[in-house]
Design goal:
mainly beta, two-stranded antiparallel sheet, 11% helix, 2 helices, Outer membrane phospholipase (ompla), Chain C
Length: 340
């Protein structure tokens, strides 16, 4: 009985101490978001979103898709190692979305697919907010992609896992304020694009910047990557990221006669701008609004496509046609969210 009483007393006394330690840990974590602290620790943060959208119609006079289901999943994870003046940060973003519709026999069609991993190692310059940093970035996707505007879209794919795959290696200077703000600039960054020969042979000019019949392309240039997290309130967070790449080796492409078939120069800067607004509705329910903008001179846009039956060019008649070469992905979801 005495042992039980002693155990209960020890547990009761330990609760305030544990709560104090947890509170202290939370305070340190919050401080590390906005300040560069000379300490040794691992920090982590993550968000998982899963959204659904369902629709059903019966005898609906106005018409519409009889039954549909859309799912969107997003996982964003950060793991950082602090060791006094050294910082090793890792960011992983995974996105995947599918739509199922009665009119297509509930064949799944992709609405989103992305793998994006960035790892940076930096050494702090004195007590400033500047770090000499090396960066590695990898981008690809999970499954095959298709052009659903074609009647026979499932007979050929436009992309697949590791095709394309983008690798970037860079060294430069980073301005960092905790984990919420990072501005990285590199005057020397190497980028490689890998793609299956299947896709580069489909078009005379190749695919994803890789020449016809080849499987890779290498570039050397300048690279900028900026990330910012704005905690608007306890329930609302806005994340934005901008990546810019300038290829020093860019030049006009010509045919055998010397005619310019593709114009390019170092001024054609590749742009990726990613935005995500998350609003916490309840403990596990959130509203998410995302928008990604991409401009890449190596991925042109055409208002026409080749008709599979006649072999002649026809108008695509796509929504957002006026955006031209700008790539846009917009996502809105109301669903489950878990932060860790």
């Amino acid at each position: 009985m005495k042992k039980v009483l002693l155990l209960v007393l020890a547990t009761a006394l330990s609760i305030p101490y544990a709560q104090a330690q947890l509170s202290k840990s939370d305070e340190v974590k919050k401080q590390l978001q906005t300040e560069n602290v000379d300490t040794t620790a691992w920090t982590h943060a993550g968000t998982f979103n899963l959204g659904f959208n369902e629709g059903f119609l019966h005898n609906w006079a106005a018409g519409g898709e009889l039954a549909s289901l859309t799912t969107n999943g997003l996982l964003s994870v950060n793991l950082t190692r602090l060791a006094h003046k050294n910082v090793w940060s890792n960011n992983l973003d995974l996105c995947y979305g599918l739509i199922y519709a009665y009119s297509t026999g509930f064949l799944p069609k992709k609405t989103d697919d992305r793998i994006d991993f960035t790892s940076k190692f930096g050494h702090r310059v004195d007590t400033s907010n500047f770090y000499i940093t090396g960066l590695f970035n990898f981008k690809s996707q999970f499954t095959k992609g298709y052009d659903y505007t074609y009647p026979n879209w499932d007979s050929f794919s436009t992309s697949k896992f590791l095709s394309p795959a983008y690798l970037t290696l860079a060294i430069g200077m980073e301005y960092r304020k905790g984990s919420d703000l990072s501005l990285f600039l590199s005057p020397l960054a190497a980028r490689a694009t890998f793609v299956s020969k299947y896709y580069t042979l489909m078009k005379p000019d190749g695919a994803y910047g890789v020449e016809n019949g080849k499987t890779s392309r290498f570039e050397v240039g300048a690279y900028f990557s900026g990330r910012y997290v704005w905690n608007i309130s306890k329930s609302t967070t806005f994340k934005t990221r901008a990546d810019l790449y300038c290829n020093y080796l860019a030049k006009n492409a010509t045919d055998s006669t010397g005619k310019v078939v593709k114009r390019d120069n170092p001024g054609n800067i590749d742009v990726l701008w990613d935005n995500l607004l998350s609003v916490k509705v309840s403990k596990y329910i959130s509203l998410t609004l995302g928008a990604t903008f991409i401009y890449d001179n190596d991925i042109p846009y055409s208002k026409t496509k080749i008709d599979a039956t006649t072999g002649l060019p026809v108008d695509k008649k796509e929504p957002g046609e006026g955006l031209g070469w700008l790539q846009l992905k917009q996502v809105f979801a109301l669903g489950l969210e878990y932060k860790f």
